[in-house]
Amino acid sequence: MLDVSIALLPAWPLLSAFLLASLVLAVTPGPVVIYIVTRSLAQGRRSGLVSVTGVALGNLGNAGAASLGLAALFAVSAAAFALVKYAGAVYLVYLGVQTLRDARREIAHRTPEAMPLRRIFRDSFVVALLNPKTTLFFAAFLPQFLDRGQATMLPSLALGGLFVGIAALTDGAYALAAGTVAGALRERRGLQRGGRYLGGLSYIGLGVFAAASGNDGAE
Predict the structure, then answer these.
(1) Phi, psi at 77, each rounded to 5°
(2) Domain extents for the chain?
(3) Shortest CA distance to 55 belongs to which of 36, 68, 71, 73?
(4) Contact by Cβ (8 Å): 156, 12
């Protein structure tokens, strides 16, 4: 068992470089961090942490896809990349429209409607999974930290899992911080509704950005 676990990871100097690079990339705010912070501000820490879990599993799926060669398909097939990319963008815009509708319902009923955690998890998982740029990122990033002569699939899966774990920890910190601010503002209905409107517009903006952006970048 020990020999197998060691074979899955590169030597310590290379592994330490991977861990440092992963931490820097994970801490740097990007569209996923904005998505998680928006959820946390609008619905609290619990919803934010559920979003982190959904995003982490979606990213893990992308890491697995990169290891299995889906990134190679995206690299040679513009149609396949565009299909998944635009599906994810449309889903983000859909989430934004739904959030704006929820904000209007709050104004009408005076009582915020709690979104089921299962729905939050589903939305977060789909948003992360339908991001082919993450698959391409893993395909480009992970091989830089593999020892020469290693079998590719299992070590890249192990490194992908490590990266997703690091990102989940930093995303969770963002969610907790944003959720704490949301708790302090919970008694102020006007600010809370304003946060939902801002969140809805953020989702729509992220969807438009995802559709308009090129193939470069991790997220």
Answers:
(1) -120, 100
(2) 31-212
(3) 36
(4) no
